[in-house]
């Protein structure tokens, strides 16, 4: 969406101790096929604090339709940390827009995927940097997927030429990027493709 | 100040590619003499983005009385990143207060040391975490030094038993923690001791 809108794009990914590290391989692959100025992968080890199934040895649970609490796959303050790094990267690069793919719909209520979180971060960003306070370079946090359903995201991505066979969504994907088919992320991805009337190509395939 | 006020303390330090890495040795030393539940040192490499004299090969400049712009020792979004990590650590530890030693007085105008930055981060924190949004555990960001002069900080620290000989302030301290005597941080430290009518003990010593 940023490329469609004519932005020069820099990409940022995080190796944060997630068990599904193959999402990084997929990000590198997808980024290499896009016309990006730069793709930086930052190593941060959130395991130093503990506290999430995504970064522990615990198995990721299967999707539960009736549980509307924040899932144990929540990683403490993860998107705050990600956006803080993005802000540093943006300032150094003189970039004024930070695109983030958070999504508040069809989801289990991660607090740091909601519009009010994104707005609060934008407020903070414009008080935090030399670029904003001295050079008048305001930062805008853009979350274009935030209010879309998974079906709408799949449709839009397809129309923009996203090759979903190169993407990984599963929380416990194996090293080849093959999905479990049962975690929240797999179930919601499958529903998204169904809603869009499209077929999820293999890999996102089941293992 | 947190210990004086009866808090159980966890400490957090960052090895972020700073040239003056001896401040970490000093932090470990000071923390070991305090009665802390835990001291975590997080490795983050802000050099991946570049953009600051503190993390580059450029020499740190001498103090300039008449330059009131943000100094080149500013590290992009550094305190935003530090507080984001602290928020994760607090959430995992069920801690409700984050103490941060930023100081907006006697200083060269780092944007992320100002009260409005700290307030905006507290706002963000209480929208960001599961602890805040689901468990009602509000986070308070406490910046007790923010409006104190360096002289007041030195006086108060002395009255609370801080052993300043074990601390490192210099931006280009060598591996033994010895100071250059000429950078912003050295000049402001020296003035602080003078203002407090106290003598800076060696190390903070000149090399």
Please summarize the sheet with the most strands of chain A. Answer: 2 strands, parallel
Multimeric organization: homodimer
Poorly predicted parts of chain A:
none
Q: Radius of gyration of chain A, Cα only, in angstroms?
A: 17 Å
Percent strand of chain A: 5-15%
Order of helices and strands of chain A: EHEHEHHEHH
Biggest interface, residues from each chain:
A-B, 47 and 47 residues
Count of DSSP strands of chain A: 4
Mean pLDDT of chain A: 86
Tally of helical segments of chain A = 6
Query: Spatial order of the strands in the main sheet of chain A?
Result: 1-2
SS content category of chain A: alpha/beta
Helix coverage percent of chain A: 25-40%
Distance between the termini of chain A: 30 Å
Shape of chain A: globular
Describe the structure.
- The longest helix of chain A has 16 residues, at 78-93.
- Chain A contains six helices and four strands.
- In chain A, helix 5 packs across helix 6.
- The first copy, chain A, starts with 9 loop residues before the first strand and ends in an 11-residue tail after the last helix.
- With 207 residues, chain A is α/β, with parallel strands linked by helices.
- Chain A has helices at 22-33, 78-93, 115-128, 130-133, 150-159, 184-196; strands at 10-15, 38-43, 97-99, 140-142.
- The mean pLDDT of chain A is 86.
- In chain A, 33% of the residues lie in helices and 9% in strands.
- In chain A, the strands form two sheets. Chain A has a two-stranded parallel ribbon with strand order 1-2. A two-stranded parallel sheet of chain A has the order 3-4.
């Amino acid at each position: 969406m940023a490329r469609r809108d004519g932005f020069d794009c820099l990409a940022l990914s995080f190796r944060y101790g997630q068990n599904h590290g193959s999402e990084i391989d997929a990000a590198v692959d997808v980024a290499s096929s896009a016309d990006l100025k730069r793709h930086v992968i930052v190593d941060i080890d959130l395991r130093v604090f503990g506290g999430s199934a995504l970064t522990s040895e615990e198995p990721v649970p299967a999707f539960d339709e009736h549980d509307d609490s924040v899932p144990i796959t929540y990683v403490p303050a993860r998107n705050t940390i990600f956006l803080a790094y993005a802000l540093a990267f943006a300032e150094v690069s003189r970039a004024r827009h930070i695109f983030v793919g958070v999504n508040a719909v069809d989801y289990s209520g991660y607090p740091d995927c909601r519009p009010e979180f994104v707005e609060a971060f934008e407020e903070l960003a414009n008080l935090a940097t030399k670029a904003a306070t001295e050079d008048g370079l305001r930062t805008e946090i853009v979350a274009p997927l935030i209010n879309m359903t998974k079906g709408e995201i799949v449709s839009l991505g397809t129309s923009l030429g996203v090759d979903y066979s190169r993407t990984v969504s599963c929380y416990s994907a194996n090293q080849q990027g093959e999905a479990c088919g049962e975690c929240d992320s797999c179930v919601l991805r499958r529903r998204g493709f169904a809603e869009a009337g499209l077929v999820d190509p293999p890999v996102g395939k089941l293992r």
